[in-house]
Design a protein that fits this description.
There is one protein chain. With 204 residues, the chain is an alpha+beta fold. It is 37% helix and 15% strand. It has seven helices and six strands; from the N terminus they run βαββββαβααααα. The longest helix is centred in the middle third of the chain and has 22 residues. The radius of gyration is 17 Å and the shape is globular. The two termini are 27 Å apart.
């Protein structure tokens, strides 16, 4: 499994996502979700601040801020490219995909060939777009009918931000600061429950 080398700017915010090839399922049991998150810690966290995540049965969402440690200078340019982060994403998908194929006794690509990474805080993005995307990705399980409420889906960072769990995979304080999220759990829950129109995210 390979992933296209994408160019990310250090300290910018990105919505990174991919889905099962041909819509196929990626996660079949709780152990699969947990294993994927362990791989995220190993392959992504060294190169980026993970601000939020949501894993769905056939796709995943990550909200990332690439760090200087994950960047390399682009020759002849003042910009940077996070080639280490891109390689980390490739290792994440390859490791998980190979393991799943072995377990299921099958071959072929598990993920779509190209992982998408959308810039959330560029000059043409609306001012609160990173927060819109943050809430959107947490709302995926409710929108898909997999959970009656945001707190009922265990495979996202919502529970941690809502003060219901103390996960260590992501940078919660940084997320609050960068996204201007309410620090009061009740207020955060009310803001999070205001469903986002998917076209605000996918229509860009």
């Amino acid at each position: 499994m390979s992933t296209a080398i994408m160019h990310y700017e250090a300290d910018s915010l990105y919505h990174v996502y991919n889905r099962g090839n041909n819509g196929q399922q990626l996660f079949f049991r709780p152990e699969h979700y947990h294993h994927f998150l362990r791989l995220v810690r190993r392959t992504i966290v060294p190169h980026a601040n993970l601000l939020a995540y949501c894993l769905m049965p056939n796709h995943f969402h990550l909200l990332l801020q690439p760090t200087a440690a994950g960047t390399l200078p682009t020759p002849g340019s003042a910009s940077t490219t996070t080639q280490p982060l891109s390689r980390g994403i490739g290792r994440l998908l390859s490791s998980y995909g190979q393991g799943l194929n072995v377990e299921l006794g099958r071959q072929g690509s598990v993920f779509q060939p190209k992982t998408k990474g959308k810039l959330l805080d560029g000059p043409f993005c609306e001012a609160n777009y990173p927060a819109v995307c943050f809430h959107y990705l947490h709302q995926n399980p409710v929108r898909a009918g997999l959970a009656p409420a945001l707190a009922d889906w265990p495979y996202s960072s919502y529970r941690d931000y809502a003060g219901l769990r103390g996960g260590t995979l992501y940078q919660r304080e940084l997320g609050h600061a960068l996204l201007a999220l309410p620090t009061n759990p009740a207020e955060f829950g009310r803001e999070s429950a205001m469903l986002i129109d998917p076209t605000r995210v996918h229509g860009r």
